[in-house]
Each structure stands twice: as C-alpha cells, then as structure tokens.
From TrEMBL:
It is found in: Cell membrane. One of its GO terms (cellular component) is plasma membrane. Its main location: membrane. This is Lipopolysaccharide biosynthesis protein. Keywords: Cell membrane, Membrane, Transmembrane, Transmembrane helix. It comes from the Bacteria.
Length: 460
C-alpha cells in the first residue's frame, strides 16, 4: 500500500470522518435526485412534492423526538442487560408512535375536504404506509448511532438514497416520470432499506422481548419534552414551506426550496458532528463530568463555526453557480440566488445554536430546549408574515431568519450557562485552536513521511 494511504488509514476509522462521509454521500445523492426532479417536474408539481416531504418529515420528527435523544442517553455506555431493556422498550414505544399517527392519517384521508387539496390529498394517502416502512431503518439508525457504528450508518444512508435515485432513473428511461411515480420510488427505497437492516440485525428487533413497561415510561417521560423540541425545530424549518405554499403558491415554494437545498453544505457537517458528539456528551453527563462536557461543547461548536466560514463566504460570492447546477438555467432569473445569499450568511451562527440545544437535552433539561425552540418558532412565523406582507416575495421569508437565529442563540446560551461553564468567546477561541491543530495534522498526513514507530493521533 502506498505511503500516503498508510498515513491516512488510521484517520479513515475516525467516527467523525465516517459520520461526515455518510452525510456527504447521502446529501450528494439527494442533490442529484433533486436536480433531476427540478428538470423533470413542472414547478407546481415540484412544490407539491416538497410539501409532501415537509409533512412526512414532521411525522418523522414526532417519532424521532420521542425516542432518539432519550434512547441514546439511556443506551450509550449501558451494561448489556440494561442496553437490551432500553432497546426493547424503544421498539415498543416506536410501534405505538408509528401506529397512532398512521391511523389518524387513514381516518383523515376519508374526509373529502382534505382530498380537495392535491398537496394534502397526496400526503394523507401515502404517509401512513411510508411511516411504517421506515420504522426498522429508524430504529437501526438510533441503535447504530448510540453504538457509534458510523460505518453502518454510512451504508444505511447510501442504500436508501441510491435506491431512490435508481428508481427515478428507471422512470426517466421508461418515459413515465410523474408525481405518483416519484412517491412509489420513495416507498420502494424505504422498504428495501428496512428489509436489509432487519436481515442484518442492525435494528435490534430481537430485543423486543426484553422491553418493559418501566423502560417505556422512562423513555416516554424524557421524550415528552424532547418531542416538543424536535417538532418545534422541524416546524421552524418547515413553517417557511407552509406559509409560502399558502400565501405565495407552489411555484414560489419551488424557487425557495431550490435556494434552501444548497444549505446542505451547512447541514452536512452540522449533522455529522452533532451525531458523533451526542453519545460522547451523554457519556460525560452520565459520569457527572460537567467540565468534560463544557470542553467538548466548546471545541466542537467553535471548530465547526470556523470551518464553515469559508463555505459561507464562497457561496455568497458564487451563489448563481449552485443555483444553475441544481435547478438549471431557467432559475437564474428568479430570486433563488438572492435568497441563498441571505440564508447562508446567517447560517454561520447555526453551530453555536445547535450545540446549545443538544447540551440542554443531554443535561436532562429538554423542557428548556423546548422553550427555546418555541420562542424561535414564534419569532420566525411572525417574521415570515411581516416579511411577506412587506415584500410580497420569498425575500421576506429569508430575511426573517436573522432575528430567529439570534433570539434562539442568546436565549438558549443564557439557559445553558446555568449548568455549564461555557463562554461564546471561549467557543470561538478553542475552536480556532482546534482548527489549527486539525489543519496541521492534515498537512502532516499529506506532506510528511510516515514514522512507523509513531502512531497517528486521533482527530479531536
């Protein structure tokens, strides 16, 4: 094996790198499928598809909110017997959280008034089945994240995205691209992914017999607050979608969503770093190591802020390039590039805000994180309404993001400082030093000869 690969091999097993690779790969396929759909579907139908995904994501946020943080918090570092009980109890609760919304959706779908809307009718017809098909893959994601098996998460994400993109490609070859066909591709990809994780035992279905009523109550008690945070966070992202659909129409939503798609450049590292940090923060909290939690929080949030800054600057300068690549030249004369510049400029504050909420959950203060998220949601909805009224365009929605992020960060950080000795300036200083060390290690891997007697240092 060449010397360069020998030097890189220890780093390729790093959990943060595997998590980042999984999110990069999944988002890459997502962007490819979105680029295809922007070229194959009319703007009105594309807006209906975006609305369908937004509402489906809301249902997923309901299930994830009850379980993800509560499960990882109880599962990480637990003894085998305790881990089996937590996993079995999580399966029990997940079945209830899947069946309940599914039955409500089936009942609502029988009401003719709902089916009068193409967007609502499509969602109510298919979301109960899609929610059931994604249950095994959801449980597998929770289990593998808690066990820090990010190599398996990489495979899981790739499988779902490749299957969906393959389905879209098949429709294109057959000349049968349509909105129902895209939904069938989504259902097929979900079914395939869940079948694979069940076959490989990644979802831990066999632990269902170890679940207990006490375990379900424990998870549900914590989840009653974290679900509010999850749903509030999702509504914070999707409230723009709903208000644009109602006040400006599906075509305007397609343009706004195109600009938001490039926000994946920010969301990819955010999801990757928070996914790897959550089990470590939970383990430190279970050890009552507040100093260790504060150090990890400052390093990860500050490092991510500095690493995202060049991406933000580059996107502001070259916003038309990604708009053309993803949506095609027909979107260059729209508001998409301007909206992208506005929203990504504000996104540099997201790492500090995201880690603040994560730390509140891990510290057992989900009710405080819920309060923060609800405050941000209220500011965003009011800002959207005022912005649309004043500008009569999606620019007003984009401008509403700034007060939303600022209010959330300031309020959440004040709450966090009651429990952890952290400083915003400290995050940036520690993050700057961590970024320097990271770049120095990367340079040593690329440019220096390997020393067989010296093991590679782990990435922070």
């Amino acid at each position: 094996m060449p010397g360069f690969l020998l030097r890189c091999r220890p780093y390729l097993r790093n959990p943060q790198l595997l998590s980042l690779a999984g999110n990069l790969a999944a988002s890459g396929f997502t962007v490819a499928s979105v680029a295809l759909l922007f070229r194959l579907l009319p703007p009105a139908q594309l807006g209906v598809w975006v609305f369908f995904l937004a509402m489906q994501g809301l249902m997923e946020a309901f299930r994830s909110g009850w379980l993800t943080t509560a499960f990882i918090r109880a599962y990480a570092g637990a003894a085998p017997a305790r881990a089996a009980e937590v996993q079995g109890s999580a399966w029990m609760l997940a079945l209830v959280l899947t069946a309940g919304p599914g039955l409500l959706g089936l009942l609502a779908g029988q009401w003719p008034a709902w089916n009068a809307s193409l967007s609502l009718g499509l969602f109510l017809r298919w979301f109960p089945l899609l929610l059931a098909l994604t249950l095994p893959s959801f449980m597998a994601t929770c289990t593998q994240q808690a066990g820090q098996r990010f190599d398996r998460l990489l495979g899981l994400r790739l499988l779902g995205q490749v299957a969906f993109l393959t389905g879209i490609g098949g429709l294109l070859l057959l000349g049968r691209v349509s909105l129902p066909g895209v939904v069938y591709c989504q259902l097929g990809a979900a079914a395939l992914t869940s079948a694979v994780v069940l076959g490989r035992g990644w979802a831990g279905l066999c632990s269902l017999r170890h679940g207990s009523a006490a375990g379900v109550r424990e998870l549900a008690r914590f989840g009653r607050y974290s679900v509010g945070s999850y749903i509030g966070s999702y509504l914070l992202r999707s409230s723009d979608t709903v208000l644009i659909t109602l006040l400006l129409g599906p075509a305007a939503l397609a343009v706004y969503n195109l600009a938001q798609r490039f926000q994946e450049l920010i969301e990819i590292p955010l999801r990757s770093v928070t996914a790897t940090a959550l089990p470590r923060l939970a383990a430190a909290a279970n050890r009552h190591d507040r100093a260790g939690m504060a150090a990890l929080l400052e390093r990860q949030a500050g490092l991510l802020t500095w690493l995202l800054l060049p991406v933000v600057v580059g996107t502001v300068l070259l916003a038309e390039v990604p708009i053309s690549l993803i949506g095609g030249r027909q979107y260059l004369g729209t508001e998409a590039a301007g909206v992208l510049r506005l929203t990504i400029s504000m996104a540099v504050l997201l790492p500090l805000d995201r880690f603040t909420g994560l730390a509140l959950d891990v510290l057992g203060r989900p009710q405080l994180n819920l309060l923060k998220v609800l405050l941000m949601l209220a500011v965003n909805v009011v800002g959207d309404l005022v912005g649309i009224h004043l500008t009569h365009s999606i620019y007003g929605v984009a401008l509403a993001s700034l007060p939303t992020i600022l209010v959330g960060f300031v309020f959440g950080f004040r709450l966090l400082r009651r429990d952890l000795p952290v400083e915003a300036g400290g995050m940036l200083r520690v993050g700057w030093r961590a970024a320097g060390r990271r770049l120095a290690r990367l340079a040593s891997v690329v440019f220096r000869r390997p020393n067989p007697s010296t093991p590679a240092l782990p990435l922070p």
